[in-house]
Amino acid sequence: MARALGFSVDPVASVPEIVKMRPPSFCKGCGHSDTFNAVIEALKPYNSNGVFSDIGCYTLAALPPYNIITSCVDMGASVTMAIGAADAGLFPSVAVIGDSTFTHSGMTGLLDAVVKESNILVIISDNSTTGMTGGQKSHATGRLQKICEGIGVAREHIRTIIPLRKNHEENVQTIREEIEYDGVSVIISTRECIQTATKKKKSDRT
Ligand code: SF4
Fold first, then answer.
1. Measured on CA atoms in the order 61, 36, 113, 118, is the torsion positive or negative?
2. What is the mean pLDDT of the chain?
3. Is 57 in the pocket of ligand 1 (CB under 6 A)?
């Protein structure tokens, strides 16, 4: 702020030599990582520049080695941007949104897609928590299927995958099948955040 107002600002501290700069990345074993690996593989046969995404830990897939996210504007915008892009002729038009962001403001966009019969795929990367802000309860937990059905997505096009390395081929296949469906489809990719799962295990032991 001071710099923006034209004041000179002394650096608070210099970074010691021993500290190596490195970009932020997913925790080891994070389900978002396996979800994006499957999305990247599924999109290979298409002339795709990437996916519309949203705000959460999963936004890290905008960075290497994934480089798959092309937009992150505000909470819920992944879905509405995918609708706009599909309207403009983009195929496949894929949005990736987290479970708590989806219940915060992605549901409204999904309703829009259903009413407009947009040809989009929405992947809800469900880590069953609000990982980005420290693991608060997610309103989506246990409700995603019913919410999507209630909004009007056809039941047979609400699919669930488990983002684990051993399921990679199967998950790629499911994503491709739903890309090929001419309409609104949702894939719920569910695996609990490794941080909250570890905390729960520890508190169960005490
Ligand atoms: S906090 Fe959870 S959701 Fe976020 S990167 Fe780590 S494991 Fe993934």
1. positive
2. 94
3. yes
- CATH classification of the domain holding 36: 3.40.50.970
pLDDT band (50, 70, 90) for residue 28: very high
Does 53 map to a domain?
Answer: yes
Mean pLDDT value of segment 168-190? 98
Write the pLDDT tens digit of every residue in 67-97.
999 999 999 999 999 999 999 999 999 999 9
- Can you tell me the distance from the alpha carbon of 126 to that of 4, in angstroms, rounded to the nearest whole number? 39
Report if residue 24 sits inside a domain: no
Does any ligand 1 atom lie closer than 6 A to the CB of residue 27? yes
Please give the tally of structural domains in the chain. 1
- Cα 134 to ligand 1 centroid, rounded to whole Å: 9
pLDDT tens per residue, range 105-152: 999 999 999 999 999 999 999 999 888 888 888 899 999 999 999 999
In a domain, 10, yes or no: no
Contact 52, 121 (CB under 8 A): no
**Residue owning the nearest CA to atom 5 of ligand 1:** 26
Residue range(s) defining the domain that contains residue 147: 31-205
CA–CA distance, 127 with 113 (Å, rounded to integer): 24
Q: Is residue 4 part of a domain?
A: no
Phi, psi angle pair for 51, to nearest 5°? -130, 155
